[in-house]
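Team,

Forwarding the record for the chain on the shared tracking sheet. I've put the sequence and predicted structure together so nobody has to dig through attachments.
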Amino acid sequence: MKELLTKYENKEPEIVFHWNDPETEAEGWTVINSLRGGAAGGGTRMREGLDMNEVLSLAKTMEVKFTVSGPAIGGAKSGINFDPHDPRKKGVLERWYKAVSPLLKAYYGTGGDLNVDEIHEVIPITEESGVWHPQEGVFNGHFSPTEADKINRIGQLRQGVIKVLENINYSPDISRKYTVADMITGYGVAEAVRHYYDIYGGNVEGKRAVVQGFGNVGAAAAYYLAQMGAKVVGIIDRAGGIIKKEGFTFEEIKQLFLQKDGNTLKTANMIPFNEINEKIWSLECEIFAPCAASRLITKQQIATMIESGLEVISCGANVPFADKEIFFGPIMEFTDERVSLIPDFISNCGMARVFAYFMERKVQMTDEAIFNDTSMTIKNAIRNTFDNNSTKTNISKTAFEIALNQLI
């Protein structure tokens, strides 16, 4: 696996598009690792301090993810080095998407990512640049559809991603109009835990869980874990967190979800960050869902959790460990050898899978059909890993081997 990984990591990307904004200090890159299957896909992120190497590592991560979620295309990513809170953000995005629109028409599909919203920014701004849909390049490059077929499937994709959830099994509050895009990634993170116990033995009900991050992914993961009977005992977010050793009830987690402030945990009894960061890692728990930013988890934190009875990690964040390597650094390897580590490209593939699902010919548009499709995709990937290695350790190593053998 290490040889395959080294070969994959060191392979130069096929296309690097570099942009300097003429009106601000913003700088952007689209990195297309390969045009496997005639196209490539990956979202657009914005943050101050971002560089081309970050975009490259995320493009390679996307390519691995597509081996699970489909379609069988190359990985790509766009990144803009700019403060997302700057009032000039909208103008930067408008100029960026105008510059990158030829790629989006021909062979590259994008979406939302860190600090860039799929529904309110990516879709309307790319439309203004003459792109039918942010995934149009994947249709043209990979599927080569007829014009009529393309119109039908893009319509399906447009409707599906922004579909408001109507089923109370999937929405915390149907009157609030949560969409598929709001909930699907966190749902997949929770489903990965459920399928892990079903396949490797055990039951998620009654297991104690710690969730890191309370944005879209972390909050939804906590909600669905609590819904399936897990006891969330701790949540750590940027500003602080909460602990309840006996576990929060499903109703309490639902309320925390409904009262979050944007992507931030909001509660009256918040423990300050420095204090909770000292306590949370030694909480007794079996499940850990890291759903905050990439590269935060230290070896010491994970070692402490293992000592406290940790069984399984389901990654909501891409590369949650504080390794400098693109994929499989020493902290990740240390973790994979000691507990069951479901890799990010399986557990957080929900949104990529939703795109793939809606790109297929006519599909069912019900909440149940959409969410079941993501659940089954994750289940099949975990089952495939189990069939190649039935032990509860080295799950990520096995999953990477399966993926890289498709790519190299």
